[in-house]
């Protein structure tokens, strides 16, 4: 793989407490009673759940299978499905924006209080359950990371790069990397075995310790999107609409489930009970607790052979239609009384029915029907069933058939049943259940608005006229996705402002440089917009863009993309120095950058620097110097102390270093802290315990750093080590190689002649603004997150030095950022040159109504001739005002206006191009692009202003 390059990025827009894009994954912590959601908006949120209820137990201690079956039948027939209605609401407790792109999966490790996340930004991260600490793992994946799953010693991640990475959770590093046959969309783990699923329709099994492939499970006809592993079994859900239970002892399908008509997109649970959701919005609970392979009681112990047990298990399984959702199910999880699902629009909560009684009855009834009657009871008679377990059903059905003759179950002349039924249960082999139905009763009143309480009946005579119905009539709670995601954007010509359209129809205008909202055009609807409404609003945004558009024609100094529903500004070394801004334009939009503003005066110290309206400043350089201002101040102090230690040729004394730093701070307190946005009101700067680790920096061999730091040669640490070598070679010179004082003249001596470099005070950025460091290359499927920094933390480094943050900045920030912020060195691309000719206006062609000096056409007095050639070449940012000043310098004689010292050339001269009068701030590039529109030399004509 080619060498990756680094860039920085940041998000524009307010952080939302709710999800603004669909939720990709939900997990529930039974010990903490909290719900964690991971969204396509790059955030992880925690929801608090109160104390829930518990299901009523229907267990009975009787050992007689037939008697127990009868008791269960009586408990089922004519009664509603048992459930506990959750009385506890969930509410949002916390949120963290952890990724720059979709969070595809999360895994909770209860023992470590840790959440593992993986994302389309190619990174895996660790987050503590309080959402306070984030750790980014070393970058290995080269494409979207789709799944993570916990193992005995850590966790495993899998992505579209076909890699399966086994991570050590304690050492925070990869233990091994395995290659899968195709991109990974599903992942599961048990003990030392990992299963993967993807587009190939094959489930692959791997041993994570030996990193070898164990077996391929072939059976699905489409993509395997879901995997659950439980002991000796794996459950797989596929795009072929089937779910399969695999026995890992035989590597064969133990049981098939044909309970969905759409591709299965989400699953949770285990081999005893699992929940599944499909693209059609159907949610199904399948209770397998009474399969022989799952049984813990001793019913029918030693009664059947292994093959007979397998045959009986094929008939078992209670699949309940939990709900029919309006849109595809993206994720699903459950607790004891609730089922949580996410779809494109919301997070919904449904009642979780108790199917244990039905599952136990089904098991006993199936075994009784399967086993020889004389093995179970010596006294049982052929028609005993009519007087025992089936009699109860007949008595209940007689409610609707009181006037009809009840036919014998054994009559050869029996007619086909004409009654139709509803059923909230499915046959695991396909179609509605022919075993349990919901019998409508005319005198039944709806007792619950959320769940169907129609009584259950056990159906004796199978019928095809069964209509599937859901148990839940509607969600008991629904938390909608907030429609605050960006759907479209337009960057204005000045490359500093952007217009964004949000899903709720709002249109906002933002400043890219300081992430400030400039204008807001609220939607008339105030709700999620779709289709024609969005198209109409998009046209309105285009009209607004034209209304606020500038005449600039500039290259891009940054890229603005829509990622995770927000505007993401990315900055790379290839374009950061592409755009300049004139001083007058800068102070108009950013008055705090004016040379006479108090914030600037504090940085200037005693230096007086002259700045004119036509001076230009690079936008990218302004941003870099502003973001890392606090860090560069720290390095300036550290560099001074480093030079002193080397000059004294003795080990660092922490007390002397601390006192020196305090002394420096005291003299520089006004310039450094006067405009600081975050200062402690209770702690004096001089009271802060500071001990820069000079000894460690001086004594650590550079070879060790080169081995430990990734891409060491492209880091600030490499630059600082070079400084150290220079100081050690000439310890007597005492001069710093850093040029932080050139950007902050208050640090420089009064004799230095300095230029003005604008720096934005941190208080003008959003208080929660983060800067993300990423890497990119043609081989990577996306920008890959490396680390992120809070601007407030960076700004506070002179006051509160965090050594961990300082080391991270030194060892991760690339040279192309380090060179300008520490050494004031930057590569400026030569601006494109544009050739133009200067001609006087042909006054004869002017309309007779137009007058100059009271005269028209040929009577207008011409301007003096030019001294030299009228064909000129200049950089593309040259302004019309500069050309006018040039003209007056090149006239052979002085005009009366030129003799008036109070008049500037821009007060009485104008330029035209193709008959259009040009504004003084217009540049050659704008004229060529917007007006001249040709590759030939531009013709500019000059004249006095019209009367």
TrEMBL record:
Keywords: Repeat, WD repeat. GO terms for molecular function: ubiquitin binding. The keyword Chloroplast does not apply. Gene3D superfamilies: YVTN repeat-like/Quinoprotein amine dehydrogenase. One of its GO terms (biological process) is double-strand break repair via homologous recombination. InterPro entries: WD40/YVTN_repeat-like_dom_sf, WD40_repeat_CS, WD40_repeat_dom_sf, WD40_rpt, WDR48, WDR48/Bun107. WD repeats lie at residues 16-48, 217-256. It comes from the Eukaryota. This is Uncharacterized protein. It comes from Candida orthopsilosis (strain 90-125) (Yeast).
């Amino acid at each position: 793989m080619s060498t990756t390059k680094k860039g920085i990025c940041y998000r524009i827009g307010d952080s939302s407490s709710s999800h603004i894009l669909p939720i990709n994954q939900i997990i529930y912590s039974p010990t903490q009673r909290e719900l964690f959601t991971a969204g396509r908006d790059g955030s992880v949120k925690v929801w608090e759940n109160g104390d829930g209820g518990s299901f009523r137990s229907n267990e009975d201690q009787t050992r007689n299978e037939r008697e127990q079956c009868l008791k269960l039948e009586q408990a089922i027939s004519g009664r509603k499905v048992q459930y506990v209605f959750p009385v506890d609401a969930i509410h949002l407790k916390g949120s963290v924006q952890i990724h720059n792109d979709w969070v595809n999966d999360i895994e909770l490790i209860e023992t470590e209080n840790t959440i593992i996340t993986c994302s389309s930004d190619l990174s895996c991260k660790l987050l503590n359950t309080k959402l306070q600490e984030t750790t980014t793992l070393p970058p290995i994946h080269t494409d979207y990371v789709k799944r993570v799953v916990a193992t005995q010693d850590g966790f495993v991640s899998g992505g579209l790069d076909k890699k399966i990475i086994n991570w050590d959770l304690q050492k925070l590093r990869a233990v091994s990397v395995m290659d899968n046959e195709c991109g990974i969309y599903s992942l599961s783990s048990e003990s030392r075995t990992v299963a993967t699923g993807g587009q190939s329709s094959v489930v692959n099994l791997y041993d994570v310790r030996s990193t070898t492939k164990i077996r391929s499970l072939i059976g699905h006809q489409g993509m395997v999107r879901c995997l659950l592993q439980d002991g000796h079994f794996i459950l797989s859900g596929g795009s072929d609409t089937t779910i399969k239970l695999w026995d890992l002892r035989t590597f064969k399908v133990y049981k098939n489930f044909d309970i969905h008509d759409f591709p299965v997109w989400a699953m949770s649970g285990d081999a005893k009970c699992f929940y599944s959701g499909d693209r059609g919005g159907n949610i199904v609970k399948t209770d397998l607790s009474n399969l022989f392979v799952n049984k813990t009681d001793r019913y029918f112990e030693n009664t059947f052979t292994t093959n007979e047990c397998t045959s009986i298990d094929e008939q078992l399984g209670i699949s309940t239609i939990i709900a029919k959702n309006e849109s595809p199910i993206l994720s699903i999880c459950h607790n004891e009384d609730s089922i949580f699902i996410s779809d494109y629009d919301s997070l919904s909560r449904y009642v979780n029915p108790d199917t244990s009684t039905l599952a136990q009855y089904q098991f006993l009834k199936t075994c009784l029907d399967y086993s020889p009657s004389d093995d179970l009871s010596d006294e049982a008679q052929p028609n005993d069933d009519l007087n025992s377990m089936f009699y109860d059903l007949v008595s209940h059905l007689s409610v609707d058939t009181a006037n009809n003759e009840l036919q014998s179950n054994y009559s050869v002349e029996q007619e086909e049943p004409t009654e139709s039924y509803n059923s909230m249960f499915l046959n695991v082999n396909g179609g509605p259940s022919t075993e349990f139905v919901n019998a409508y009763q005319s005198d039944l009143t709806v007792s619950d608005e959320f769940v169907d309480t129609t009584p259950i009946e056990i159906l004796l005579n199978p019928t095809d006229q069964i209509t599937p119905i859901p148990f839940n009539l509607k969600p008991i709670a629904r938390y909608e996705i907030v429609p605050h995601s960006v759907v479209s954007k337009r960057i204005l010509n000045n490359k500093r402002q952007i217009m964004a359209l949000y899903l709720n129809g709002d249109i906002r205008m933002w400043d890219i440089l300081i992430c400030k909202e400039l204008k807001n055009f609220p939607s008339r609807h105030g709700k999620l917009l779709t289709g024609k409404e969005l198209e109409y609003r998009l046209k309105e945004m285009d009209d607004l863009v034209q209304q606020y558009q500038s005449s600039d024609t500039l290259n891009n100094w940054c890229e603005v993309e829509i990622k995770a529903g927000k505007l993401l500004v990315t900055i790379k070394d290839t374009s950061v120095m592409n755009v300049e801004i004139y001083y007058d334009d800068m102070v108009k939009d950013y008055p705090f950058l004016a040379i006479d503003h108090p914030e600037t005066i504090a940085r200037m110290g005693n230096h007086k620097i002259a700045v004119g309206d036509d001076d230009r400043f690079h936008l990218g350089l302004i941003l870099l110097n502003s973001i890392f201002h606090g860090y560069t101040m720290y390095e300036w102090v550290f560099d001074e102390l480093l030079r002193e230690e080397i000059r004294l040729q003795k080990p660092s004394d922490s007390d002397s270093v601390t006192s020196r730093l305090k002394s420096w701070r005291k003299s520089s307190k006004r310039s450094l802290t006067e405009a600081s946005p975050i200062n402690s009101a209770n702690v004096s700067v001089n009271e802060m315990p500071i001990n820069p680790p000079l000894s460690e920096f001086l004594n650590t061999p550079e070879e060790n750093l080169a081995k430990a730091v990734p891409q060491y040669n492209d880091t600030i640490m490499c630059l600082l080590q070079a400084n150290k070598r220079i100081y050690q070679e000439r310890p007597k010179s005492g001069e710093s190689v850093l040029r932080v004082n050139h950007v902050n003249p208050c640090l420089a001596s009064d004799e230095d002649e300095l230029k003005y470099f604008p720096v934005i005070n941190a208080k003008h950025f959003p208080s929660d603004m983060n800067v993300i460091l990423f890497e990119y290359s043609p081989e990577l499927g996306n920008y890959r997150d490396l680390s992120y920094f809070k601007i407030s933390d960076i700004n506070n480094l002179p006051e509160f030095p965090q050594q961990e943050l300082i080391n991270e900045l030194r060892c991760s920030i690339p040279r192309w950022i380090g060179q300008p912020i520490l050494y004031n060195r930057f590569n400026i691309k030569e601006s494109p040159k544009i050739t133009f000719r200067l001609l006087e206006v042909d006054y004869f062609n002017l309309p007779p109504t137009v007058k100059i000096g009271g005269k028209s056409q040929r009577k207008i007095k011409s301007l003096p001739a030019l001294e030299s050639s009228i064909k000129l070449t200049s950089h593309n940012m040259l302004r019309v005002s500069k050309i006018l000043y040039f003209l007056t310098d090149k006239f052979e004689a002085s005009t009366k206006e030129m003799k008036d010292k109070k008049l500037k050339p821009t007060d009485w001269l104008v330029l035209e191009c193709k008959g259009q009068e040009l504004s003084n701030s217009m540049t050659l590039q704008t004229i060529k692009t917007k007006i001249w529109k040709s590759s030939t030399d531009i013709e500019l004509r000059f004249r006095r202003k019209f009367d």
